[in-house]
Amino acid sequence: MKKSRGRTGRKRRRRKHLKSFMDGVNCSHKLEYIKLKKWLKERGFEDSNLRPAEFWGTGRGLMTTKALQAGDVIISLPEKCLLTTSTVLSSCLGGHIENWKPPVSPLLALCTFLIAEKHAGEKSPWKPYLDVLPKTYTCPACLEPDVINLLPNPLKKKAQEQKMMIQELFRSSRAFFSSLQPLFAESTGTIFNFSALEWAWCTINTRTIYMKHPHRDCFSLEPDVYALAPYLDLLNHSPNVQVTAGFNEQTRSYEIWTNSQCKKYQEVLICYGPHDNQRLLLEYGFVALDNPHSSVYVSADILLKYFSPLDKQRKAKVSILKDHDFLEENEQSIVKQRNPRPLQDETA
Ligand SMILES: C[S@@+](CC[C@H](N)C(=O)[O-])C[C@H]1O[C@@H](n2cnc3c(N)ncnc32)[C@H](O)[C@@H]1O
After folding, report:
1. What are the two backbone dihedrals, phi and then psi, of residue 77, each rounded to the nearest 5 degrees?
2. What's the mean pLDDT in 286-300?
3. Residue 240 in contact with residue 222, Cβ under 8 Å?
4. Disulfide-capable partner of 154 in 243, 270, 324, 328 (CB 3.0 to 4.6 Å)?
5. HEC letters along 88-148
6. Is the sign of the CA dihedral 90, 96, 101, 105 positive or negative?
7. 230/82 Cα distance (integer angstroms)
8. Distance between CA atoms of 56 and 21, rounded to whole angstroms?
9. How far is the CA of 152 from the centre of ligand 1 (A)?
10. What confidence category does residue 338 fall into, taking pLDDT thresholds of 50, 70 and 90?
């Protein structure tokens, strides 16, 4: 049959070309995903219509093999598949954490567990999950100083703070790491090194879902709101979709429901929250195209410079903006131990 060379043909070819970019390259045949699926099945995860795939634009994510309608469940992950502080406490680290004073934070407990399990290699029951975790991250904390220097000023300061915060976490955790020596043949100084902590911190910062756990005395007062959710954490973010997510007490599973449609073989996207690109870069290491939450950060200095000198209210206006945290502080801020932001608000 003669190929259509007219306008319709060109349109059709263009659409096909565009579609091939939007569709992902299925990678569920790769051994690491086959092992992960088997491991999840043993923990009660029912095979869904999701497949790991590589997408142009968002990287690795999950594609659906069935069209999704608003109201459909995207994924339902049983409690047994989740990695939380309860997992950590029931491991060999549990006794050491319970005896350690001052108590460690839930975040540090999770970081320690990830590093220890990664070190255990073949012996770790979490190996199929650990094997699919990224080896490196693009959060500002992992960027070289000369790259951080290229960022706009307010973001540069926040990136430097994030780097210093992890350095401080490492410094303040060294004694705790040393206390774990009886559990390891190799020196804890080698196992729990700075880059291992940085990797674990970024894993938690970029991949955890929000799940509130009651406070336990063996932990410090920082909120215990994290859970690592294997497979579910392959879902990428879009500011333009809406989902409902949370732990379902009846099914004892963490569930995500879509409020948007998704076509067959397209990437299933969820919303991590109404974050602007600065926040996305800081917390997750990427920026979203056409982000409706985009904002521009302005320092008090810049604002005052461009306020009309005749405006008698300008100081009061700046003060109101400051009170509501709408202004970047210019002075060097004290490095605070900030808790990372879980993947999804309960309300996202
Ligand atoms: C929860 S993980 C999602 C799965 C991840 N892409 C992977 O391969 O493991 C979150 C990370 O995915 C990446 N990501 C999520 N949404 C993205 C998007 N819209 N564009 C680019 N990268 C995105 C970022 O690196 C982010 O830190």
Report:
1. -105, 115
2. 88
3. no
4. 328
5. HHCCCCHHHHHHCCCCECHHHHHHHHHHHHHHHHHHCCCHHHHCCCCCCCCCHHHCCHHHH
6. negative
7. 7
8. 6
9. 22
10. very low
Instruction: For residue 48, give the nearest of 75, 23, 25, 70 by alpha carbon.
Output: 75
Q: How far is the CA of 53 from the centre of ligand 1 (A)?
A: 12
Per residue in 117-148, pLDDT tens?
999 999 999 999 999 999 999 999 999 999 99
What percentage of the chain's residues is helix, strand, coil (to nearest 5)? Answer: 40, 15, 45
Is the C-alpha dihedral spanning 246, 200, 139, 33 positive or negative? negative
Q: Which two tokens stand for residue 16?
A: 């096909």
Do the strands 243-248 and 59-64 form a parallel or antiparallel pair, or are they unpaired? Answer: unpaired
What token pair was written down for 292? 């409706």
- The residue whose CB lies within 8 Å of the most ligand 1 atoms, and thus the one to mutate among 56, 58, 231, 344, is 58
Convert 2-36 to b/e letters by CB count within 10 Å (16 or more is b). Answer: eeeeeeeeeeeeeeeeeeeeebbeeeeeeeebeeb
Counting atoms of ligand 1 from 1, which one is nearest the CA of 237? Answer: 16
pTM for the complete prediction?
0.87
Domain boundaries, the chain: 83-228+298-316+325-343
Mean pLDDT in residue range 309-315: 86
The torsion angle over the Cα atoms of residues 88, 90, 91 and 95, rounded to 10 degrees, is 90
Question: Separation of 296 CA from ligand 1 center, angstroms?
Answer: 23
What is the identity of the amino acid at 282? L
DSSP string, 226-290: EEB-TTGGGPEE-TT--EEEEEETTTTEEEEEESS-B-TTSBPEE---S--HHHHHHHHS---TT
